[in-house]
Amino acid sequence: MSHIDFDESFDLMRSLVAVRSYPGEEAAAQHVCAAWLEAHGLPVTVQSTRNGQPNVIATIENGPGPTLLLNGHMDTVLAAQGWLHDPWQGWREGDLYYGLGAADMKSGVVVNMLVARALAQNRGAWRGTLIFSCVTDEEALSLGARALHASGLKADACVVTEPYFEGGAIGAPGKVLIRADVTGKAAHGFTPWLGVNAGIEAARFAAGVCEGVPALKHDKVPSSQTVLSIHAGSELYVITLPETARVLVTRLIVPGETRESALAAMRAFADSLHSPARFEFATDEPYYAPWAFDEPGHPFTQAFAASYTAERGAAPELYYGGGITDANVFSGEGGIPCICHGPLGGNFHQCQEWVDLTSIPITCRVVEGAALRFLAA
Question: What CA–CA distances, in Å, run from 337 to 61, 92, 296, 327?
């Protein structure tokens, strides 16, 4: 196993945090990542995505064998109000480092960078192909992961180094954003019986949909459903019945549920209202398929468990997470077995996001050990 230098991992993570990388603004931070990889002899490919931001990919081919993908994302959420100090300069308190994206997930990107370098420098210990990918836009529409998937990505297993430090996530719900467009009939506001008020019909739908179309239950995967917005009528003051209205519903979907099944359930509920208005349903971006990799006997599961146990002194708990990650794209849509495991952090999507600096080298050793076992020579 390679020696992972604490100071190097800290400095590398801090250099990535220092470059603002909101979705759609990742190019500068991706350049820092690509330059480091090239400086350490890794072959770098830059892949364009739909919004013009680059994915950074390094493929290390080392003879016949399986292919392992190490994935992370460079983008962060927007900085919330209330940071005590500059969220990009960050600050250290003991073993904790505070900064925007420190945990979610630039420290995870650092893990993959260091592990990719370690394997590139130790080719005699493994066979197969290692793919490093640092993608864009995960916090928005996953345009980076989708571009990589659409390019014909093939891998036998994947580690997504999101901050799941205790054990690893082997599945998660997907999500679908459903748009209900309601069409009524305009009439003078003083004679509403001559028309069909789309606003009222949309409200009837919104008020009952969460009970009328309950989120499906799964014994391991969380699910929920929420009405996000209702809009009807004109922004101008007019005495006219709203002729159109729109309702947005977000729904976490569990394994076995699809975009089409969610839409069918919404249509059935709307039909049950016997509304005089017309309902039309569609889905908007983003859509994520649910994913599950619950295979204890799979070589990748065994490799990860053995490495984790050797490093941490106990077998990992493998569980289903509640968040959406790029694993939804790679596993839910691409069918690649995935495990999410990364450094320890907290305050995700909040002020004072932090990462435990000691967890970065630990995670490096777990991921490197899993890679070497899975790609055993």
Answer: 20, 36, 12, 9
